Amino acid sequence: MTQDTVRFRRVLHVVTHYRPELPGQEIFLERSSAVMQEIAPGTSHELLVTRTPRPARETAACTTLTRVTYLSPGEAGTWRRQMALALWLVANLHRYESVHFRAHADWYFVSYLLTRLAGRRLVLSAHGEDSLPVLIGKYPRSLRRLARHGFGLFRALVTSSPQLLQETRQVADEGRCHLIPSGITLPETTPGEGAGMREQLGIGAEDFVLVFVGELSTRRNPHFLVEAMPAILAEHPQAHLLLVGPAADPSEAQALRALVAREGLGERVHFLGEQRDLNPCLAASDLLVLAAHREPGAAVPEAMSHGLPVVARRLPGIDDGSVLDGETGFVFEDRVGYVAAVNCLLRDAEMRRRFGAAGRNLAAARFGMAGVAANYLRVYGTEPELPPARETGLGCTASILDTRFHTPVEIDAGAPPLLITMVDAEEAFDWSAPFSRDAQDVTSMGEQWRAHRIFERHGVVPLYLVDHPVAVQDAGRAPLRDLLRDGGCEIGAQLHPWVTPPFEESLGERNSYAGNLPVALEFAKARQLTGTLEDSFGEAPRIFRTGRFGAGPRTADILKALGYTADSSVTPCWPPEGMERPWLSARPYWADREQRLMEIPVSAALVGRLSHATALAPLVFHPRAQRSHASGVMSRLGLMERIRLSPEGMTIEEAKRLTRHMLAEGHRVFVLTYHSPSLVPGNTPYVRTREDLARFLGWLDEFYAFFASEARGRSGSWRELRYGPMAKTAMAAQ
pTM score > 0.90 for this model? Predict the structure, then answer.
């Protein structure tokens, strides 16, 4: 959105089972919610799980599912589970505009009736073999008419294949039936990904690889593919078959392994089990092969997006729109047709290339997640706020703000305190005036030598977090190049959206925070800034800060995509005005499960006898409380004050008090920060006169001396924390 006001909506997704560590409908829901968030930022998505027991340790899997609720602490009977669902909805339905049951979760229809009575839009998905007639047929004959009326409560019925749509229309009004295929995210190619998988499996670079993706069950029929392997090997003895999927039917999996052993195919058929990330398997393969008698799921478009031809059983009304016979692959009726199709493709590399290119184009046009997400939003009664163009391809597995994804960085308690100095290297602008793209004055960078006289005296090598105007003008970048060449500084990135291209947003308070921008635009600005800094300074920045500390829900995903390994966009106790923020600590933490992105917050804390009453702090420091001087009274009484480690707006005694408090609380990492324009009087509210500048520089000098003497600390680099001895995770593991 580019407006300064956004109307927020919530969609509740209800599933029976949720295993975020494994592929399946979970992956589609995560990917689609990420893209829906990109094209409709005002709509958030939450998940309710009815059958999977609550895990002992809940691990968040997707940043764009803002809440995951497990109904059951353990195994529960059907009646108890249905009652728990109904009671939960009674208590929580007021929070949602739409409720999407992604499986038939209430066999008594109570929760569906409650949702309709509450005036919420009710949606049901049918997939696999669960078309509406099939679901109705599972009820006793005497109850089927009632069940049919029960399904009439749904405002929309979503199917994923033409056959399911046709079956559903037999018992439901056509206007309620929607065909939305399982969307796929177009893969970003990673050099060597396929070769690495082949090497791991002992498959030669010139060998042919067939891949099956799906559960090992009679329904998916991998048995057929294994039985046909000897006929394929007779013409192509270097062929391999990868079986990728869970052993949903243990007896089928056991029979498959016995068949492989009996036919002597142990070196040619590879059981890979469930793979959350299919990209390496598909990148290592030449063909997708399927023999299912029912809907094959998302395997076909996923494989086509990787440029793989597909050989699949002819399933009228199911694979007609994906496997185009003679264009994106071949369809077969029996084993003879299957073997002939596979051998034909293995003989002809040009045909494989042609079919693969056609399949990739078809996957993008018909199954691209952006279009699928837009269609789901319309089912929820929401038009996309942004055009559903090609999705960003970003992950959704990291968050600077969502504490579900945070893991504290383990720091040696015996190490001396580390002080990191970060300077926001930016243009000067009128802090009281409206935001302007014309703010380009970077001449203050030529005055940084004043602080460097102090830095040199205390062994400080500052990190300059450089924004776009500084990076593109000689007046800004030349002084930094000199310092960088002499080892006098480090370079990171700082994003001021209003002066960083591309310029697509309106100017205003809301859009001055990068995290409030549409995700694609925030990504584009961060990518432009990163490339500009690399061009200007000869090295890609690896630490980032959002200007005005305005990180958003997808900022961490953007940083990971751009190769950043650290961020410093959190200033505890000072949440950006108008942005929802949790109360975060100044302790460094990992922002993702893989521990690739470290958050290094600015040092700030509550100090005083009530410093641990963090729930009270938002009230004490609310703008209204500050206007009534309540916060000042709390500070003077020594009850609660908030202090940030900065010479801007903080006295030296406050900085020392903060440091002593944080040391007593066990902090070993301290981040001091200020703005580069403050070294020129009149640029910022903190330094108006030459006397102010002298006090500012004196503050730095005194604090560095205090930190070395009383705190027994030392100045150093953020890299020491991210890669070096202060972090217990070895650098090689990164």
Answer: no
